[in-house]
Amino acid sequence: MSFLRHLAACNRHDLDRYRRFYVAGKPVGWVRDDFFRVLSDFGAPFTVKGDGIGLDEGLPTFHHRTLAMNAAVMKLVERKAMPKLRREQYPVLTRWGEEPLLAVDRAAVPFFGLRSFGLHVNGFVRKEDGLHLWVGRRAMDRGVAPGKLDNLVAGGQPHGLTLAENLVKEAQEEAGLAAELALKAKPVGVISYLMENERGLKPDTLFCYDLELDPAHVPRNTDGEVECFELWPLDKVAESVASTDDWKFNVNLVVIDFLVRHGWLTPEHPEYVQVCSGLRKLD
Question: Which residues cross the membrane (predicted)?
Answer without folding.
Answer: none
